[in-house]
């Protein structure tokens, strides 16, 4: 039982370590979703085991889903907050990360310059 919890939590942390887009920017949606899934799985397994019905695996699965969704929602909000949107002279939108004008992308994800 404890090995399963450690394996699920470890897998979530490994996925979150690799969560970047093709330009090397951290993708908080993926990172926090994976972390939330790992934490939710551990919490669900503990709660499921404490209930006493022997369904720690079911509790871990439910906890992973709920934690993953909650983490992804929070990460998505952070990704949007990290992007500052602008318009160029031709009225086309582009966004830059953390207010740096040297790392900007068009709305379709292609690098602006």
UniProtKB/TrEMBL annotation:
InterPro entries: Gly-zipper_YMGG. Residues 1-19 form the signal peptide. Pfam families: Gly-zipper_YMGG. Residues 28-77 form the YMGG-like Gly-zipper domain. Keywords: Signal. Transmembrane segments: none annotated. This is Outer membrane protein. It comes from Brevundimonas denitrificans.
């Amino acid at each position: 039982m404890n090995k399963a919890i450690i394996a699920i939590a470890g897998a979530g942390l490994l996925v979150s370590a690799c969560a970047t887009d093709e330009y090397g920017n951290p993708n908080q949606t993926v990172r926090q979703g994976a972390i939330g899934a790992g934490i939710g799985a551990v919490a669900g397994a503990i709660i499921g085991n404490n209930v006493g019905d022997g369904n720690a695996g079911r509790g871990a699965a439910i906890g992973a889903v709920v934690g993953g969704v909650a983490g992804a929602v929070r990460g998505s909000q952070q990704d949007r907050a990290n992007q500052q949107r602008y318009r160029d002279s031709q009225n086309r939108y582009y966004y830059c990360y953390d207010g740096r004008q040297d790392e900007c992308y068009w709305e379709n994800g292609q690098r602006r310059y």
